[in-house]
Amino acid sequence: MIGVLTVALCFANCAAGICKTSDEAFYERAQWYKKAGHLDKASEILSELYRKNPQNASLLVELGETYFKDTNDMAGGLIKAEQCFRKAIRIAPEFGKAYYMMSELANAQSKYDLAIQMAGKALSVKKPDTQAYMERAASYSRLHKDKEALLDLDKYIALHRQKRNAYERRASILENLHLYERALADFRTMQKIHCDDRTALKEAFCLDKLNKREEAITCLNNLLGRNPEDDAGYEARGKVQVKLGRLKEAIADYSRAIQLIPSANVYKERAAAYEKLGRKDLAEQDLKEAERI
């Protein structure tokens, strides 16, 4: 089957005026399978290519990666992946990606000290893999070593300024440390890279914590202008309205959130607003609804 595929691929490529070796065409097909989520087929091709090129550590790491990410073979896949990564390290001890993948594998198995060790190695070899800063930061974070995690994320972001997920991870840690000004800056950078509603909610939350509530309202107005069906946006705006003393506006926001997706929590929040307005009857009704849900 593999030989037939190779011939077919070579013929197709040459017909298109791009003559490649059979191995190159075969490798491209493996990448296509990986992107399409057919990891078993990708691993079959990569395994055959590695058999023909037994000193190619890069192929071995890619093969291990397909085993690692194949959710249809979790237990067996992890064992085969580790075997590939360790063998790649023996073949090419200065190849950073092999250590990086070992770090990712260790994190997946909750072996955080090993993950930190492997990430450190990935960064110190002659061919380092800077993704290891992100992986080590994840390990530190899981060990509640937030300062160390932040240092690694700072280094990674300095090298990869357009990687949105790095800002997200750093902002999450900054939020946990109540460093809202810095978290807000990261959320705003994320919005410049790619705007989404979830990040807008985070941005508004930080503004609220910084007592910049009118700015928080503006942020949520913009969110709801883009997506008038966002129940979380109405709930978040309702909370800020209460803090600003705008109880009628808060009740209107809570009512809209309930209309979209009824929840016990929002009923309770609206009940508290009714209570402050002196409408105990309506507050009691909402509390009963909250209990019913």
Characterize the structure shown.
The protein is an all-alpha fold. The protein folds into three domains: 92 residues, Serine Threonine Protein Phosphatase 5, Tetratricopeptide repeat; 102 residues, Serine Threonine Protein Phosphatase 5, Tetratricopeptide repeat; 83 residues, Tetratricopeptide repeat domain (Serine Threonine Protein Phosphatase 5, Tetratricopeptide repeat), CATH 1.25.40. Helix content is 80%, strand content 0%. The protein has 17 helices and no strands. Helix 15 runs antiparallel to helix 16. The longest helix is centred in the N-terminal third of the chain and has 18 residues.
Name the CATH superfamily classification of the largest domain. Answer: Tetratricopeptide repeat domain
Largest sheet: none
Relative helix content: over 70%
Q: Any low-confidence stretches, pLDDT <50, length ≥5?
A: 1-18
With helices defined by DSSP (H or I, 4 residues minimum), what is the helix count? 17
Estimate nothing, just give the exact number of structural domains.
Answer: 3
| N-to-C span | 57 Å
**CATH domain class name of the largest domain:** Mainly Alpha
Order of helices and strands: HHHHHHHHHHHHHHHHH
Strand content range: under 5%
Q: Mean pLDDT, nearest integer?
A: 92
